[in-house]
Design a protein that fits this description.
The protein is mainly alpha-helical. The protein has a single domain, classed as AhpD-like. Helix content is 61%, strand content 0%. It has seven helices and no strands. α1 runs antiparallel to α7, α2 runs parallel beside α7 and α5 packs across α7. The chain is globular, with a radius of gyration of 16 Å.
């Protein structure tokens, strides 16, 4: 399948993209660890089948020092020993927050308690916003068939704030 539409070639799409980037900068400047942010983004993107976002976040994580083993095991984090308890809590929140339609409860009390055990209020605010933002970004890219493979680490730096 070819890309259906270059969303960001339109004035409206470009303005939306900049707002997304601005939100991303708020999350990036939060105390939520960079590698946790990338792992969460990877897991949600795997669940949503977003090639563009998988490409971006795998490469950004690798550029930030994430190991190939941990990147390869994100999809099977429950059956892996390479993630901390805090990361496991964040990955559980990412999954449950992504699969809202699959569970009447949404995010379970158990997952929420584990998140609160490992993250302070500022980090929780960033984590919740990140799960919402990556899911929205996944939907934009999947709808227009935006393909993965061409992303270079840092290529979107500076996109926020313009316009």
């Amino acid at each position: 399948m070819d890309t259906r539409f270059d969303l960001f070639s339109t004035e409206t799409g470009s303005r939306l993209g900049k707002r997304f980037a601005n939100l991303g900068q708020v999350i990036e400047s939060s105390p939520l660890p960079k590698l946790t942010r990338e792992l969460v983004s990877l897991r949600a993107s795997q669940l949503n089948g977003c090639g563009w976002c998988l490409d971006m976040h795998a490469k950004e994580a690798a550029a930030a020092g994430e190991s190939p083993v941990r990147l390869a095991l994100v999809a099977a984090w429950r059956e892996s020993t390479v993630f901390t308890e805090a990361e496991r809590a964040a990955l559980a929140l990412a999954e449950e927050g992504t699969r809202l339609a699959d569970a009447a409860e949404g995010v379970s009390d158990e997952t929420w308690a584990r998140v609160r055990e490992h993250y302070d209020d500022e980090q929780v605010a960033a984590l919740v916003a990140l799960v919402a933002l990556i899911n929205a970004a996944n939907r934009l890219a999947v709808i227009v068939h935006q393909k993965g493979g061409s992303y270079e680490p840092g290529m979107l730096a500076g996109f926020a704030g313009r316009g």
